Structures are given as C-alpha cells and as structure tokens.
Amino acid sequence: MLKTVAKSGKLANVCYDIRGPVLEKARQMEEEGHKIIKLNIGNLAVFGLEPPDEIVQDMIRNLPHAAGYTDSKGLFAPRKSVVHYTQEKGIRGVTVDDVYLGNGASELISMAMNALLDDGDEVLIPSPDYPLYTAVVALSGGRPVHYLCDESSEWMPDLDDIRAKITPRTKALVIINPNNPTGALYPEPVLQGLIEIARQHQLIVFADEIYDKTLFDGHSHTSIASLADDVLILTFNGLSKNYRSCGYRAGWMVVSGDKRHARDYIEGLNMLASMRLCANTPGQLAIQTALGGYQSIKDLVAPGGRLCRQRDLAHRLLTEIPGVSCVKPKAALYMFPRLDPKMYPIQDDQQFAYELLAEEKVLIVQGTGFNWPTPDHFRLVFLPNSDDLTDAIGRIARFLDGYRRRHGA
C-alpha cells in the first residue's frame, strides 16, 4: 500500500473560490463541448481589452536584455517611476528603497503577510473581501478577522465593527479601495476614520489600490497613504487592471509613513524579496512606460467609454430582475448584487452557482466566496461586450425566474 500524500495542514482554512470548485465544473463542461460565459474573473484580455500598444512594444524592444536577474527589489528605473507616481498621489517621503516590485501585487501581499505574522496574530479584513487576503493570512499562520462593510451605506467599512473586533493580537488592517468585489470607492472622511483607528491601536495598514484609475462618473481616488505620515502603510498596486496587463505579473508595493519602529519588519521584507531572487524582468520593464504614457483607461471609464457603457448596462439589467438589488459601482470591474432572501431562499450559494452553471452555462462566483456571511449575494464582472453581457444577464434572469417558481417564492 502506498502512503497517502496529504496536503499541508496549513491549507485547512485556505480557499480561493474565484478559481474554486465551480470553475472546475465549468472546465469539465467545456471539455464536453459546452460554451461557458465566464463572469467570474477580471481577466481583461479574454474580453478584448488589450494593454496599451506602447507597453507591448517597449517590452519587445527590451526583451533581449531581460534574461538576467535584477536587484531583489527590482530595476531602478521602474521603481523610480513608482516613486514619481506616489508623489502624484500625494504620498510623502517615499524613496526608491521603499519600493518593491513583484510578480503582480498578489506576490507582494503574500510576502508582506509572511514577514509580519506569527501563529495566532490577527488581521482585520473587509467582508466582503478579495479572498486572497483571507487565504494568505491563514497560510501565514495568522487569523483572519472580518469586519463588515455596510451595503446600505454604499458598502462603506463599518468603523464601529472594526473597533469592536480589535484585540491585543491584532497586527494589521486591510483596506481595499477601490473595492473588489463591490465597486465601492471610499471618500476621504472614511479613510481618515480608518487611519485614526490604525493610529490609536498601532496597526499596520495594508492598502490595496489596484483599481485606483478605474473610476466612473468623474470620481477621484485618494490614496490613504497620503493622509498620514505617522502610520506605517503598505500600498499595493500594479499594471493588471488599469493597464489591462494581467498576464505580465507586474506589481509594486510601497512602504510609507513612520518606518522607524518597523526596521525589523522591513528587514524581513528584504529577506523574503531576496529569497525569491527577483520579479520577472519583462514585467518590470513595462512599468515605467505604463506610468509615464498615455492613460488610456480614462477613455474606457469616461461617459460613453466601453467600461462605463457596460457597467451601466449590467446594472440596469440586473436591477430589472425581480428581487435583485445592486449598489452601482463607482470603480473597479465588478458588481455584487443582492438576491432578496424572501424571493430566493438560498441555503447554499455554491450549489446555487453550480445550478446556474448547469442550466444556463453562466459562471459567476458565490458571495460566500468573498467571505460574505450570508448566501444572498454573488459577484460578476461586466467585462463582456454589450451583446454578450445582455445575453449573460438574460440567462441569469431566466434562471432566477425558474428558481423562484421551483422554490415557491
């Protein structure tokens, strides 16, 4: 008898349902010849949203010189361009040494958690969240503690709930702004409130700002690190979304604020950066050109731009479905609609997602996959073109009509 090879016990509380069991079922169906409309992942290229051509051409030109390792934190020129970007955002005191380049922001988020957490340390994470945070905190030995965002207040963080969940083991506060999965954009007074909580309890702030240019209706984004010099803040960003370059895996992390008491932690970050040798060099080479070039994302999100049109269409079609409500996103690429529990008495929202996939060949992600506590939400991307989006939401509407009939609501 061969001994069973089991996964690590560290993975017991780790899940990532954006690419979870329902996606595996979708892949099986595709192998059987079914065409699946995938609304589960913000993978822009598959919907024809390509990176700016100057980024592509610059990478091609530099590729012959990209075979060697770089400095463990990354090449000087793209890190310097990130410093300039922080200056544009009003973040003070950032030097090239405070910038780390990574294989997407995801690698850097994992690095930041691994360098910080001991077993049992707690991190405050929004609910709903981008589930990578919950997963990497658990994998790092920490305990994810979810604070609620209030749907009735356009998904703003509940500051009182955050305060109530702080304990002596709380190390950090995660802020995702603009927010995935809700599309919320936090105004400055809310950010000031979050900063004050971090200040009072000496928490590190992890600020995910990967969608900071994907803004609708003329809204602007305030980087939370621009509001405080006395709080340690790690800001994560990258090219994946604003520059439609998911596969390039080009992200950055900026350490700002009061670093005097964090020398040991920063030494840990440097150690982990060195252990992975460096981020991929071709991806690094895209950063300077992207940040310094024409910001074509503005055309996509402007009134009449493709992303703006598709957001408006998706929101209208969803909210026309009986029993479906949705806070209209001010930013990002997602919607997080609510299903009235009286009309849709869902007990298991993963099973709900399975049934939608089986009946209508539409793939979404169930709300509990984003650590939302009740099975009454789901997330979808509004990236397909208008015709495909109309088809997909029409299928969702047809499925929901049948669901109401079957469950007697």
From TrEMBL:
It is an enzyme of class 2 (transferase). Pfam families: Aminotran_1_2. It comes from the Bacteria. The keyword Transferase applies. Keywords: Aminotransferase, Pyridoxal phosphate, Transferase. Residues 35-396 form the Aminotransferase class I/classII large domain. Its EC number is 2.6.1.2. Its cofactor is pyridoxal 5'-phosphate. Belongs to the class-I pyridoxal-phosphate-dependent aminotransferase family. This is alanine transaminase. It comes from Sphaerotilus sulfidivorans.
